[in-house]
Automatic annotation (TrEMBL):
<feature type="transmembrane region" description="Helical">
    <location>
        <begin position="106"/>
        <end position="125"/>
    </location>
</feature>
<keyword id="KW-0472">Membrane</keyword>
<keyword id="KW-0808">Transferase</keyword>
<feature type="transmembrane region" description="Helical">
    <location>
        <begin position="318"/>
        <end position="340"/>
    </location>
</feature>
<keyword id="KW-1003">Cell membrane</keyword>
<dbReference type="InterPro" id="IPR038731">
    <property type="entry name" value="RgtA/B/C-like"/>
</dbReference>
<feature type="transmembrane region" description="Helical">
    <location>
        <begin position="352"/>
        <end position="372"/>
    </location>
</feature>
<feature type="domain" description="Glycosyltransferase RgtA/B/C/D-like">
    <location>
        <begin position="63"/>
        <end position="221"/>
    </location>
</feature>
<feature type="transmembrane region" description="Helical">
    <location>
        <begin position="170"/>
        <end position="193"/>
    </location>
</feature>
<keyword id="KW-0812">Transmembrane</keyword>
<feature type="transmembrane region" description="Helical">
    <location>
        <begin position="243"/>
        <end position="272"/>
    </location>
</feature>
<dbReference type="Pfam" id="PF13231">
    <property type="entry name" value="PMT_2"/>
</dbReference>
<feature type="transmembrane region" description="Helical">
    <location>
        <begin position="17"/>
        <end position="37"/>
    </location>
</feature>
<keyword id="KW-1133">Transmembrane helix</keyword>
<feature type="transmembrane region" description="Helical">
    <location>
        <begin position="81"/>
        <end position="100"/>
    </location>
</feature>
<feature type="transmembrane region" description="Helical">
    <location>
        <begin position="293"/>
        <end position="312"/>
    </location>
</feature>
<dbReference type="InterPro" id="IPR050297">
    <property type="entry name" value="LipidA_mod_glycosyltrf_83"/>
</dbReference>
Length: 502
């Protein structure tokens, strides 16, 4: 006890408790911060809610499950973003708890805690996890698939087939990258002797039947919408730029897990003093197949996902960084050895806490400091609730009808689509992406058209005026930012399309 901290003893005696404490603490942090600092939803979350409100079997954004769940959570919280943020953090908690179960089956409970602690420092699991959508929902499903795949291949537990098939079907209903992810699992099974033995039974056929039943409606939609085509292959002249983009994505993944590398270096024995006094976290020897399993799924999703993203010019890793880097912490633990010496305990705790808190500090600085240091717009500082309330209330007072549809600037329109009446969103520049509402239907039901106003006259942009002939603009409405700083007020031009008489 002289050289061992209470934290180390807690890891040895109560590993599950440590996992629950750190996972719930991080989830609570990223539940509170958005509620306090995000007047508008981050990223494309408002669009996710607008599409989820329609309950389409499929859209141009991909499979429907994440959009449906986002809308259900939003409505359950009384049309409040708290429900969606809570759903996102529930996904994080499930992901890491299942991840701990997988790590415990491979390296034991004590070292499994260290794997969870390392993975918590990956940037993809902090602020990006707030933006609920297909990439966030795919994380717990991927963790469950890995756990049950190991139970099937490594532990020969045939009763895991049913759960595996359900999770595979739900993943196919969550992200368009699911077929490639499942092919990685199938490829590992085929490449190993024990994996081939598992596949030589009738259980995989029953699993395929369950998956087919789950995804059949979405598959029918894909066939009818002719959406099964592959993205266009790049031209020969573009290959150089695509390779650079692939390299940039790989560098981004490496930076996202830089805290793991730093902690491993600080804990190394290169410059350690009194190495014999360092406490030891022990594990039984790791199965060689388990070692291959961990290394394969720590490397293959990152390499394949970044390569496909670079090849087809995507802005993020296919499948998401959370899926690509989920096994990184466990891979480091497996590579370390059966005995892990915890050297420089105080420094390790400090660096770990700083790595977990750094994204939160960055979010706070972005919200309060950036508006004073430059004219760059903070996307989450837009007053979404005030915008939605103003235009919904004005339309109802002027027409004596609730607002049924909104069009114009996609970002502003998606905010208004979150108002209490939940009007339909029309992407008038690309109406094929919102098939539930056409321009002709919009002119019948009426609605609000909004745009960014550059002056006090409120003249609509030429493209909006062309798509909505006869538009009579109102006086632009000015909104304050959460922190105004040096930014001018947000001016929103708008016009009402009055509903036609029945």
């Amino acid at each position: 006890m002289r050289f061992t901290s209470l934290v180390v003893e807690l890891i040895r005696a109560r590993p599950r408790l440590v996992v629950w404490i750190v996972v719930l603490a991080q989830a609570g942090l990223w539940l509170i911060l958005p509620m306090l600092l995000y007047p508008s939803p981050p990223g494309d979350l408002a669009t996710v809610l607008a599409f989820g409100r329609e309950y389409q079997v499929g859209t141009w954004l991909g499979p429907p499950l994440a959009f449906w769940l986002a809308d259900i959570a939003f409505r359950a919280a009384g049309n409040n973003m708290f429900g969606v943020y809570l759903l996102a953090q529930a996904c994080a908690v499930v992901t890491f708890w299942v991840y701990y179960q997988l790590a415990r089956a491979i390296v034991g409970g004590q070292q499994a805690v260290l794997a969870v602690l390392l993975s918590l420092t990956v940037v993809a699991f902090s602020s990006p996890g707030v933006e609920f959508g297909p990439l966030v929902l795919a994380r717990p499903l991927w963790a469950l698939l890995l756990l049950h795949s190991w139970q099937l291949i490594g532990q020969n537990r045939r009763n895991a087939w049913f759960a595996w098939s359900i999770e595979a079907g739900l993943l196919l209903l969550t992200t368009s990258a699911a077929p490639g992810i499942l092919l990685l699992l199938a490829g590992f099974a085929v490449a190993t002797v024990r994996g081939r033995r598992v596949l030589m039974s009738l259980d995989p056929l029953y699993a395929l039947l369950v998956i087919a039943v789950l995804v059949l409606p979405y598959l029918i939609w894909l066939l009818r919408a002719d959406a099964l085509a592959m993205p266009p292959w790049p031209a020969i002249s573009d290959l150089g730029a695509r390779v650079l983009q692939w390299g940039g994505l790989l560098i981004g993944l490496a930076l996202a897990m830089s805290a793991i590398v730093l902690l491993a270096i600080l804990n190394s024995g290169w410059f350690a003093r009194n190495a014999g006094e360092a406490p030891i976290i022990y594990r039984p020897p790791v199965d060689p197949l388990a070692r291959d399993f961990v290394y394969f799924f720590a490397i293959a999703p990152a390499l394949l996902g970044s390569f496909l993203a670079g090849l087809f010019n995507f802005d993020h890793v296919v499948g998401g960084a959370g899926v690509a880097l989920l096994m990184s912490g466990l891979a480091v633990i497996v590579a370390t050895g059966d005995l892990i010496h915890l050297r420089r305990q105080r420094m390790l705790r400090t660096v770990w806490a700083a790595a977990v808190a750094a994204p939160a500090v960055a979010v706070i600085a972005t919200a309060f400091v950036l508006p004073w240091t430059g004219a760059a717009e903070v996307p989450t500082a837009l007053p979404a609730k005030a915008i939605a309330h103003f235009f919904g209330d004005n339309f109802e007072r002027r027409t004596n009808q609730r607002l049924r549809a909104v069009a114009g600037d996609p970002q502003l329109a998606s905010f208004i689509a979150m108002s209490a009446g939940r009007p339909h969103l029309l992407l008038d520049a690309t109406p094929e992406r919102t098939p539930w509402l056409s321009a002709a239907k919009f002119s019948e039901t009426g609605g609000v058209v909004v745009w960014r106003a550059s002056d006090t006259s409120g003249t609509p942009p030429p493209e909006i005026a062309q798509r909505f002939p006869g538009l009579v603009p109102e006086v632009p409405r000015a909104f304050e930012w959460m922190v105004n700083g040096r930014q001018p007020l947000l001016r929103v031009g708008w016009a009402i399309v009055r509903p036609k008489a029945p």
